[in-house]
Amino acid sequence: MSGVAVELTGVIKRFGQVIAVDEVNLQIGDGEFFSLLGPSGCGKTTTLRMIAGLEFPTEGSVRIYGEEMGLRPPNKRPVNTVFQSYALFPHMTVSRNVAFGLEMRKVPGAEIASRVEAAIDLVRLGGMAKRKPAQLSGGQQQRVALARALVNQPRVLLLDEPLGALDLKLRQAMQVELKDLQERLGITFVYVTHDQEEALTMSDRIGVMHQGRLLQVGTPEEIYEHPRTRFIADFIGETNFLPVTVAGPGEVRLAGGEALRAITHAVAGTSAVLAVRPEKVSLYREGEAPPSGCNCLLGVVKRRVYLGNSLYYHVDVGAATIRSRYDNAPGAPALAEGERVRAAWDPVSGEALED
Q1: What's the number of CA atoms in the CB half-sphere (13 Å) around residue 51?
Q2: Phi and psi (nearest 5°) for 114?
Q3: Helix 168-185 vs helix 138-150: angle between axes, to the nearest 10 degrees?
Q4: What are phi and psi of 115, to 5 degrees?
Q5: Spatial separation of the C-alpha atoms in residues 86 and 222, rounded to whole Å
Q6: What counts of helices (H) and strands (E) characterise the chain?
Q7: Mean pLDDT in the chain?
Q8: Are 247 and 211 in contact (CB under 8 A)?
Q9: C-alpha span between 128 and 139 (Å, rounded)
Q10: pLDDT class for 116, splitting at 50, 70, 90?
């Protein structure tokens, strides 16, 4: 990272006896699009609110560009927050909604006018300045909320599930727009979401949270390809889990005794699960030879599921049922239910994780 925009050190947040955020240490880079990802109640929004100054840590510290925030209120921090509920004033026009914060800070009128116009243009709402929220679509209202935050020229923009109220197609379109906007502005975005696809689509890095803890931080590729825990492997994307015993570094064994190679994160002699993504598993008919060096299990096709642009096979390999996914259905092998096959994958595609 070229510089640190946001730093959390030993941050704990308690609400009575409940620990909402548990010993979080995190650095977010200057100009980075960083997402906090996790299920409801995992502590991600509480973490964001502590950066915003809407909550304060019970223990630990929050620094923004090296400056300790302490008990500094939100309006004294170089941040702005966009929430899922846009909280627009229904009786005000777009331009008045965007100008509201500047007016409260008594910014000169001429400067307000130029900054509001620039912010509205930035979110591609030119020509709509005189409309009121009821005359706008959900996506347009979301852009007004963005413009209202950006007009204050924050160094860090905090976004708490801002696309959650939009339908799927609009949400996907807005993901692209948000990432493009962040790249054009070059400022730090800290984005909270429970949507795995959203985080993978937009983020430079992702922090996965569960039960108040920050489990793993990495690029989308690192989080998806090399999850550190079963929870992450299960929460992000689809994963096969095979019960195994760790035989040693790089080696695991199924209940039937079959030896397989894998990246191992668990201690030798312990029970674990071997996590393999369905798209990493290729199927071969009897008589067809998988590539040398692959892990290979004999099985029987139990189910074939056609989904248009993808095709799934569910294969019983004895210890478990393993799924294989082909994303280009016309190029997938035409296997029948009941057919004997070999399920094969590269050892580096499997991770042995603590169960």
Answers
A1: 35
A2: -70, -40
A3: 20
A4: -70, -40
A5: 33
A6: 8, 21
A7: 92
A8: no
A9: 13
A10: very high
